[in-house]
């Protein structure tokens, strides 16, 4: 049975999952990976959701304030052997619930063309492609998304 837990970036389970995420992204992104590294630090992230299956950490997601009223979804990851079970969608939904409590009106995020599974997840969960924002404006590999969470 899947259990979700709210925590922060100091949680050792989150830190360990992020290590796996970074290794996978380094492999997928190749030479471009060094560009993204400064934007993927976890220090000062106060909103983390961890997914546990039989008390084992199997996935994570986080968010941080991008600007007032907007949270940026970061560090979404599920262990490869646990994929295809809807865990990432549950983590994302819990982050959105938490964002509404803050209160936040929208969530944004960036992923890459080399992560087609992530793109499919975000589209399935109601995220719309937007123009690249912030540090991703001129980055061809980046795909940015937005979801209004104050509607419906």
Q: Tags for this entry?
A:
single chain, 152 residues, 7-stranded mixed beta sheet, 30% helix, 34% strand, Aminopeptidase, 7 strands, alpha+beta
Task: Describe it.
The chain is an alpha+beta fold and 152 residues long. It has a single domain, classed as Aminopeptidase. The protein contains 4 helices and 7 strands; from the N terminus they run βααβββαβαββ. The chain has helices spanning 12-29, 33-36, 87-101, 116-124; strands spanning 2-7, 47-53, 56-67, 70-78, 106-112, 128-130, 142-148. A 7-stranded mixed sheet has the order 1-2-3-4-5-7-6, sandwiched between helices. A hairpin with a 2-residue loop joins β3 and β4 (70-78). The longest helix is centred in the N-terminal third of the chain and has 18 residues, at 12-29. The two termini are 29 Å apart.
What's the story with the biggest beta sheet? 7 strands, mixed
Structural class: alpha+beta
Q: Topology as H/E string?
A: EHHEEEHEHEE
List the domain count as a whole number: 1
Q: Shape from CA axes?
A: globular
Poorly predicted ranges = none
What proportion of the residues is helical, as a percent range? Answer: 25-40%
The end-to-end distance, rounded to whole angstroms, is: 29 Å
- Named at the architecture level, the CATH assignment is 3-Layer(aba) Sandwich
- The share of residues in extended strands comes to 25-35%
CATH topology: Aminopeptidase
Strand order, sheet with most strands:
1-2-3-4-5-7-6
Q: Superfamily at the CATH H level? A: Gcn5-related N-acetyltransferase (GNAT)
CATH C-level category: Alpha Beta
Report mean pLDDT, rounded to a whole number.
92
C-alpha-based Rg, rounded = 14 Å
Number of helical regions: 4
Number of strands: 7
